[in-house]
Amino acid sequence: MSDTIIPASSQDDLVDELRTWLSENWDPDLTVEQWWQLLGLAGWSAPGLPTHAYGKALSRNDSVRVQNEISAFGALGAPGGLGLLLAAPTVATHGTQEQIDLYVREIVTGAKAWCQLFSEPGAGSDLAGLTCKADLDGDQWTINGQKVWTSFGSVADLGMLIARTDPEQPKHQGITWFAMDMHQSQVDVRPLVEMTGHALFNEVFLSDAHVGNDAIIGGRGNGWAVANTTLMHERSGLGSGGGSAGGGAATPGTIGGCLNKRAGDFAPAPKKPVSKEPVPKEAGSEKKRSSGGSSGGASASPLGGGGAKLMIDLAKGNGTIQDPTIRQDLMKLHTLGELGKFNNLRLKAAKKAGQDIPGFGNLSKLAMSDIMRLTRDIGLRIIGPAGMLHAYRDEDRAANDEATGNPFGQMVTSIALWAQAPPIYGGTDQIQKNIIGERVLGLPKEPGDTKGVPFSELPKNA
Ligand SMILES: Cc1cc2nc3c(=O)[nH]c(=O)nc-3n(C[C@H](O)[C@H](O)[C@H](O)COP(=O)(O)OP(=O)(O)OC[C@H]3O[C@@H](n4cnc5c(N)ncnc54)[C@H](O)[C@@H]3O)c2cc1C
């Protein structure tokens, strides 16, 4: 791999080092592809990855600082999406150096986009019950089955596929994690429109699709352990607001259509000193949100951590801040955000001392669900009846703004419609609680242990 990556020497030097690098390298007239190539190979796209995997081995907090600094500088951020959030850390953990140099390199440079082919119609919470099968023929595997809820499947070059390679093994064994090429006619991706009006996710039909033996990550039959690494990054990354998946407004990969465009056209304005202007303008500066959020959106939370401030500004703007019950809930929202920050600091301190906080990712994800629900409820109370109107198509936005007289209403309804998603994706709230109960608190497992029983002999969905 590239030997240009030098680990960031200390936290104090980090921002200086990054700013110097940005001053020397950022050029808005580069294409998105050229810029991401520079950013990725210098280790700034995914600085949380180890140094042998195109990263700088930074902590999550420092990775977020890097993301924020790039944005404040006015440069295009790292290529977002599931490649950076999930596939890269999974391949970095379980892949060979050859696989890292192939897959991770293409992720950090934005050359390829990924989707996550985990969930199936009969295997969501019970992911290990998956039935998508892979049969080996020579050095090629033939894949048959159906996946669903596949976020960004329609723009993905590669899929993180988990499939059953040995049904005679117990349920959690005999599963294998593959890096599958999505560019084949045997892979049929069909978009599903959700209630936000967007088609973030898709159903994917795999009918004699092919994947090479050399595209197995982490070893044949070891897919459950590898998938758990992916899920761990999904939970902790999404719980903390996207982590190093941050990303700019450009879409990575060959299908998204952004690579040949001018990088400067996607870059944010350099950050100016904080304005003390009253409400609507300030709130407007945070108006931009990821349309998908999600299991893989550029940023998991449409609020990017500034949710309470945004709602406070909105409430100040229309006078609902005078309502004591709204004030109380705004305080609760602010407190939940602060708790999240403190918990991240706690984790950082624990890691520094060579320790961990068991269940941290699960707890963070549960906290994010709470924040999303509370934000939804407060937002709708602040904007009142206008919250019942929503423009599902971009072209209807102006008409809606005119009808409600509130340009921020759409943002609130978008958040409210999206708020149902985080408690489901990456493992539902109930599943997070089960994991915390069983693996952190040591509570007894659910009855009906099927350990050791071959998958082929299990009753369906057992
Ligand atoms: C916006 C979004 C994006 C997504 N993106 C992707 C993606 O890119 N790739 C992908 O593979 N998947 C994706 N998913 C799928 C997601 O991971 C699943 O929806 C999730 O795991 C739940 O599975 P399910 O929908 O089959 O629900 P089910 O598993 O059928 O659960 C239904 C209900 O039963 C509860 N339940 C189930 N089992 C238990 C139990 N043992 N104890 C207590 N309660 C239980 C659940 O909490 C839930 O309330 C996405 C989902 C959403 C909403």
Describe the structure in brief.
The chain has 462 residues and is α+β, with helices and mostly antiparallel strands. Helices cover 39% and strands 10% of the residues.
H and E string: HHHHHEEEEEEEHHHHHHHH
Strand content: 5-15%
Q: Would you tell me the structural class of the helices and strands?
A: alpha+beta
Strand order, biggest sheet?
A: 2-3-7-6
C-alpha geometry: globular
DSSP helix fraction = 25-40%
Total individual domains? 3
CATH topology of the largest domain: Butyryl-CoA Dehydrogenase, subunit A, domain 3
User: How many H/I helices?
Assistant: 13
Major beta sheet, specifics?
A: 4 strands, antiparallel
Compute the CA-based radius of gyration: 22 Å
Structure in words:
Residues 115-198 form the Acyl-CoA oxidase/dehydrogenase middle domain. Keywords: FAD, Flavoprotein, Oxidoreductase. Its cofactor is FAD. Residues 316-441 form the Acyl-CoA dehydrogenase/oxidase C-terminal domain. Pfam families: Acyl-CoA_dh_1, Acyl-CoA_dh_M. The chain has 462 residues and is an alpha+beta fold. The chain folds into three domains: 11-112 and 234-245, Butyryl-Coa Dehydrogenase, subunit A, domain 1, CATH 1.10.540; 114-230, Butyryl-CoA Dehydrogenase, subunit A, domain 2; 301-440, Butyryl-CoA Dehydrogenase, subunit A, domain 3 (Up-down Bundle), CATH 1.20.140. It is built from 13 helices and seven strands. The protein has helices at 11-25, 32-41, 60-73, 82-94, 97-108, 223-239, 279-284, 307-318, 324-352, 360-383, 397-404, 409-418, 429-440; strands at residues 114-117, 133-137, 140-147, 158-164, 175-181, 187-191, 202-212. Strands 2-3-7-6 form a four-stranded antiparallel β-sheet, with no helix packed on it. α8 runs antiparallel to α9 (324-352) and α9 runs antiparallel to α10. The longest helix has 29 residues, at 324-352. The radius of gyration is 22 Å and the shape is globular. The two termini are 44 Å apart. Mean pLDDT is 87; it is low at 241-247 and 273-305. The chain binds flavin-adenine dinucleotide.
